[in-house]
Amino acid sequence: MTRDAALPIAVRQLTKSYGTVQVLDAVDLDVHRGEFLTLLGPSGSGKTTLLMMLAGFVRPDCGSITFGEREVIRLEPHKRDVGMVFQNYALFPHMDVAANIAFPLKLRGVDRVETAKRVEQALELVKLGGYGARRIDQLSGGQRQRIALARAIVFEPRILLMDEPLSALDKQLREHMQIELRQLHERLGMTTVYVTHDQREALTMSDRIAVIDQGRIRQIDTPKTIYERPNNRFVAEFIGESTFVKVDVTSSGCTFNGIPLSLAAQPPQTGPHHLMIRPERLAILQRDPADDVNVLPAIVTAAIYQGDSVLVHASLSDGTMVSVRASASSQAPLVGDHLNLGLNAADTYLLPPEEGVQ
Ligand code: ADP
Ligand code: MG
């Protein structure tokens, strides 16, 4: 299995409705050869439907899907050369582990000797060598997840699809498996489309993230760009914590509620804009700041001890609530305290103006 064998995916104008509910709205998506792309969106946004269409289990109303040069819309799932891990694993409980993993090989007419060899290799890859004779109901959740993965990759598909494969696992195992799945992808190199509603998981694992909402892709970019330069408010609010304040941009500069602000970049248009504030970009200033730090006066409305830090809620001069973390070891702010919050000019980001958004 080499990266050269991986196939790029091109989705064009993919549309699907159930009755009056439009689930996918003319989706365009390119997944590069060998890329790990995550579809990230809230529940009901159309992630599973899109993945099921790539796998061939759901027919679109219109649009096209190509793997490499080949249009696959009319191909049966088992002819698409796609491995799939379903959300509920969909293992066969009455078969042993080896028979579960062998299933896709049987479907493709692989002989018994070759099947046994490949099943053992797949088990080794998911770190369950020697587990072939176990029954599915003798396995833990994490082991079942690995078996589902082994079954998806045993026939060396050129595309791997995974639908929230870690959502049933507890936090610690989930975080461990995120790293393992990523490492496995680096070794096998197949083009991977991974579905999750967990933004941190998406940031951790992906080469690129496609943020989907109500059947439309709102942004496709690297984790860093999605987080630091969201194209729109939905993306900004779905990923990480953020607050927005209204600022005025004129040809002579930018002001927030009368306070002049230094920006990382002057936006192309003048007029009202939304400044994105992430809590981790704010600092509680103890002394006069450097020239390139914007000072936002605020009043503390709550200070919540959280062990490693104190979470401070504060009200800016226009009434906008922001949060900022203070060190738990220092003199933590108290409710009613007046603070100066610092925001580096380099950390300012104005959302591109959106139609219909005030
Ligand atoms: P996600 O995986 O992002 O949670 P889904 O793709 O499962 O979203 O579902 C998107 C929308 O399509 C939801 O409103 C869901 O109720 C609807 N939907 C999905 N499958 C069907 C179906 N077979 N029949 C009717 N509605 C469906
Ligand atoms: Mg789903």
Discrete helix count: 8
The overall number of domains is 2
**Strand order, biggest sheet?**
6-7-8-3-9-10
Order of helices and strands: EEEHEEEHHHEHEHEEHHEEEEEEEEE
CATH structural architecture of the largest domain: 3-Layer(aba) Sandwich
Task: Name the ligand types.
Answer: adenosine-5'-diphosphate, magnesium ion
The poorly predicted ranges are: none
Over the alpha carbons, how many angstroms does the gyration radius reach? 25 Å
Oligomer description:
single chain
What can be said about the biggest beta sheet?
6 strands, mixed
Q: How many extended strands?
A: 19
Distance, first to last CA: 51 Å
What integer is the average pLDDT?
93
Helix content: 10-25%
Topology:
Layout (H helix, E strand, L loop, with lengths): L8 E10 L2 E11 L4 E5 L6 H9 L6 E6 L2 E2 L10 E4 L11 H11 L4 H14 L15 H13 L5 E5 L7 H18 L2 E6 L2 H7 L2 E6 L2 E6 L1 H6 L4 H6 L4 E8 L2 E4 L2 E3 L9 E7 L4 E3 L8 E13 L3 E8 L4 E7 L10 E7 L14
Parallel strand pairs: 3-8, 3-9, 6-7, 7-8
Antiparallel strand pairs: 1-2, 1-4, 4-5, 9-10, 11-12, 11-14, 12-13, 15-19, 16-17, 16-19, 17-18
